[in-house]
Design a protein that fits this description.
- The protein is mainly alpha-helical and 355 residues long.
- It has one domain.
- Helix content is 73%, strand content 0%.
- Helix 4 crosses helix 15 and helix 14 packs antiparallel against helix 15.
- The radius of gyration is 20 Å and the shape is globular.
- The relative contact order is 0.19.
Length: 355
């Protein structure tokens, strides 16, 4: 069997098992778990190209863009000061955790700080490549462990009685099938527009282009008053499968032998950051007219795509969630590199031990 087809079959099998067990985000977590186990414990050749990941991101981007409205755009603008405050607080706490990790493991502070800031795996690895004396293995491990921790922990927290997020089923949406011919044409027209917008965004080097392009274009159509068809449930399942299988290949720590102590501390810092975000979410929900559930998913230190899927599954406010995550990504991409480059010139960083 072809490696790509085999990976898909394994992912569907894992997603099916998680669905039968009624676990949250079953197709994402199930496919990620099953593909990882097959990769780890068998000699089967599995493969999953990045363009399938991009397709999943386009689907998520379409769903996010469709959730926008003029009212939510106004709400996002009014919350910009809160976005800045929360982003700075999360980054500051991440730096404190990076310092603790550096002291406890002996790994250079410049590497741990680059790996600890929740700016996305690909973005922070790319930033590390531009810096001097940065250990990319350390950066990658820190980013991957935090991302995987959030992907696994947040859905269970959100769906638990603690946060009362178990009622979000996509089945109740107004349009979730492709039965009506008029719906088919309208949906596929906008879906093609979403695909093209993702390609254009990639061409002009936007962050997470496959998702951000559809968010901006489909969201623009929605705010302008166009009636955008909802993303059908089978497509959402396909997006979860595609992203879950892709994330499973991040879980290969074969290059991290001898870093067991470092990995333990990475897990500790990931959980600590998640607890910090939970505390900030409580404050945010008091400042604005939003549920703690929406606030928590908005501030969770995971990727925008993964948190959007969680938010959609529990009927949280997708536009607010996207606004906070997008603000943090842009802040980290445009502000943090200059700050880090300035910090790394200080004698404190020059003297720190490198892994």
């Amino acid at each position: 069997m072809h490696p790509i087809l085999l990976a898909f079959v394994v992912g569907v099998s894992g997603g099916g098992v998680f669905t039968l067990l009624h676990l949250p985000l079953s197709w994402l977590l199930g496919s990620m778990t099953s593909v990882f186990l097959i990769n780890k414990w068998t000699k089967l050749d599995l493969s999953w190209p990045s363009y399938f990941r991009d397709l999943g991101l386009i689907i998520v981007g379409y769903a996010i863009g469709q959730s926008f409205s003029r009212e939510t755009m106004i709400e996002i603008v009014t919350q910009l000061p809160s976005m800045l405050t929360m982003t700075v607080a999360i980054i500051a706490f991440s730096m404190v955790l990076a310092y603790i990790t550096s002291k406890m493991t002996g790994i250079g502070f410049s590497s741990t700080i680059t790996g600890s800031i929740p700016g996305g795996l690909s973005q922070m690895v790319a930033l590390g490549e531009e810096m001097k004396n940065i250990d990319l293995t350390v950066v990658t491990i820190l980013q991957v462990i935090r991302l995987l921790s959030v992907i696994f922990v947040v859905p269970f927290l959100v769906f638990s009685p603690l946060l009362e997020g178990g009622g979000g089923s996509n089945a109740g949406r107004a349009v979730t099938s492709l039965e009506a011919p008029s719906f088919q044409w309208i949906f596929f027209l906008f879906f093609i527009i979403a695909i093209v917008s993702g390609l254009v965004a990639k061409r002009i080097h936007l962050p997470t282009p496959a998702m951000l392009g559809p968010i901006l274009v489909i969201g623009g159509f929605t705010v302008a008053g166009f009636s955008i068809p909802h993303m059908p449930d089978p497509f959402i399942i396909l997006a979860q499968l595609s992203l879950g299988i892709y994330f499973s290949f991040m879980m290969n720590f074969s290059s991290s032998k001898g870093l067991s102590n470092f990995i333990v501390w990475s897990l500790f810092t990931s959980v600590s950051l998640l607890l910090c975000c939970a505390g900030l979410s409580f404050l945010l929900s008091r400042w604005h007219d939003m549920t703690f559930l929406t606030a928590f998913i908005s501030l969770a230190p995971g990727g925008m795509a993964e948190m959007a899927l969680v938010g959609q599954a529990v009927n949280a406010d997708l536009s607010i969630i996207t606004g906070y995550h997008l603000f943090r990504i842009l802040f980290i991409l445009f502000i943090i590199p200059a700050i880090l480059k300035g910090l790394f010139k200080l004698s404190f960083f020059q003297k720190s031990k490198q892994y």
